[in-house]
Every structure is written in structure tokens, then in C-alpha cells.
Amino acid sequence: MGKPRIGAIGLAGMSVFLQVDHFHLPGETVHASHLYSEIGGKAVNQAVAAKRMGVDASFFGAVGDDETGRLCYSFLTQEGLTPCLETHPGIPSAYACILTDKQGENRVSVFSGAAAHLSEDFIRSQETALCACDMLLLGLECPWEATLAALEIALSNAIPVVLNPAPAKNVPLEWLKKCCLLTPNAQEAATLLGISQESTPIQFCEALKRQNFPVTVVTLGSRGALLWDRQTGTLFDAPAVTAADTTGAGDCFNGALAASVCQGLPLDAAVEVAVYASSLSVQTRYVMPSLPSLSPEKPDPHIIRHLVWQSAY
Predict the structure, then answer these.
(1) Which structural domain, as residue segments, surrounds residue 204?
(2) Is residue 28 situated within a structural domain?
């Protein structure tokens, strides 16, 4: 029997990182001390994170007929993913600029480019590839029509869907309830629930219960993650670490969570593994170098010990 396969749908493009002492004040010019670039995008990061945690993965998205688009295809293939890319001539591939300060916090600006033109028709043409997946990871980076088409295909074929509602947008509750799991961060959860992102875990639980949300995991950064199972909330503390770069930590969490669930871990154990994986990721700069691996060629002994402990537990 082959490995479980996760399908991720979203944005793929070039990510450029600038290391700065502090973030800009109005009108201020800030000089960067480091420059680094890599292929990325939330769904790409999640797919790579899941792949490195031991499952197979397919990526569905749109790129331009340009050098970045070709680099996206090459990178996905090199990482062992199956690329399913719609190409849009004359439209540049997506581009993101990430500023990281000396505390490891980040500010991200994204040009969606060709990713904003991912079409419903293309997604529907990929039904066979989508149905080869054991779980779909969806986000809100691409046009809603394309995302909705993927959700409808999943529902028609009994494929569980994890929705990471990022970037933060209001999504009709009727569609949220069609997903088996939601994974917002505090800001995204606050947007969906209409409450403050500074809310306490108890206040998040009260709002989730009041609005009858499906099973939800709210990622809380250095505070860990909150699992709401429709009845009760469980807070999973994050290990105390020194953060070098928080970029992609949420994507690492989503990929590790989906991979762990697909490999048979109970949801609470999968959340704990994901919290641990993301706490490892923030200790390394940039995204791709930070994503932990369970592959035989590059095993992460800390993650392996954690998975063994969870399985025994």
C-alpha cells in the first residue's frame, strides 16, 4: 500500500527575504543586512512540509509563462511533489517580499500575479488528480471560484478537506461547515468570528461554540495552538524557543498536521506534533531550510522521538 497523498491548492511564486534591524516607520528607509530568495507561497510551503513529514503530495496552482513559473515546476519536482500547474502567458508569476526583524517577526507583501487567475475550469480538469489525494489542503490565496470547485470535488468524492483560511477573509459559515477541519491563526479566527485577535483561548472557544463552528485548530504563535472539537477546547503549549524567523511557521504547522492525520495519528496527537514541528521551524531562517524532515535521507531525530512518544501514548 502506498503512502497517503495530500493535495494543496494555492499560490506558487518567488519569495524574497530581507533581514532588517526593525520595521519601517512612516517615511523611513530601512537598509537590509541579508538577501535571500526561494520558491514559496503558503500552499507550496504546506505541501513541502507535508511531503517532508512522510506523505506524498500534489500541488495545484497557476504560474506565468516566465522564468519564475519554470523554477516553480522544477522546484516542486525536485522536492518530490507532483506539480499540476495552469500556465498563463503574459501574466507574471506570483512574487512575495518578506521583511524579518531582529526579533524574528515578519511582515509580508504579496503580488499574486498568475495565481490570481487560477481558473475553475482548470481545477475541474484536474478531478482525477484531486481524487488521487487522501486529503485536500485549501486556502484563500486563489480565486474563490477555483477553491470552491476543489471543495465541491472533494465533497463529491468523500475527500476530507482542511481549510487554512489565509489570508484573513470572511467566508460564509455554510462553506466552512463543509470542511472537516479549519486551521486559522488568531487574526484569521478573529476575522471569521468577529472578535478581537487578542482574545483569550477561552473567549475563542466561547465564540466558536456560539457560532457552531466545525472542528477548528487556532494557531497562536508562541502560545501554541487551541483545538476546538465542537464541545471543548484544549490548549497545546509551544516549547520555549528562540525564534530566528517566524515566516512559514503556520504553513509548517498545517503541513505537519495534515501529514500526521493522514498517517493515522489522532487529531490531538497530530496537533501536538504540528506544534512541535513549527517550533523547530522558527529556529531557522527562511522557509524551505526550516521545514523539518522525516525522510530516511534527512531524518529529524527530535520529530521522530516526538512521533514515537505520541504513538506509544
Answers:
(1) 5-23+34-312
(2) no
Q: Alpha-carbon distance 166 to 187, whole Å?
A: 9
Average pLDDT over the chain, rounded to whole?
A: 92
Q: What is the pLDDT of residues 101-141, one digit of tens each?
A: 988 888 999 999 999 999 999 999 999 999 999 999 999 99
- Measured in whole angstroms, the distance separating CA 295 from the mean position of its chain's CA atoms is 20
Cα-flanking dihedrals φ and ψ of residue 85, to 5°?
-115, 130
pTM score, whole prediction: 0.91
The predicted pLDDT at position 104 comes to 83
Q: How much is the pLDDT for 168?
A: 85
Domains contained in the chain, number: 1
CATH number assigned to the domain comprising residue 182: 3.40.1190.20
| Residue 110, domain member (yes or no) | yes
* pLDDT tens string 72-108: 999 999 999 999 999 999 999 999 999 999 888 889 9
Q: What pLDDT was estimated at residue 313? A: 36
Instruction: Please provide the DSSP assignment of the chain as one string.
Output: ----EEEEES--EEEEEEE-SSPPPTT-----SEEEEEEE-HHHHHHHHHHHTT-EEEEEEEEESSHHHHHHHHHHHHTT-EEEEEEETTSPPEEEEEEE-TTS-EEEEEE-GGGGG--HHHHHHTHHHHHT-SEEEE-SSS-HHHHHHHHHHHHHTT--EEE---S-----HHHHTTSSEE--BHHHHHHHHTS-TT--HHHHHHHHHHTT--SEEEE-GGG-EEEE-SS-EEEEPPPP---S--TTHHHHHHHHHHHHHHTT--HHHHHHHHHHHHHHHTTSSSSGGGS----TTS--HHHHHHHHHHHH-
In this model, does residue 190 exceed pLDDT 60?
Answer: yes
Domain-located, residue 81: yes
Q: Is residue 116 part of a domain?
A: yes
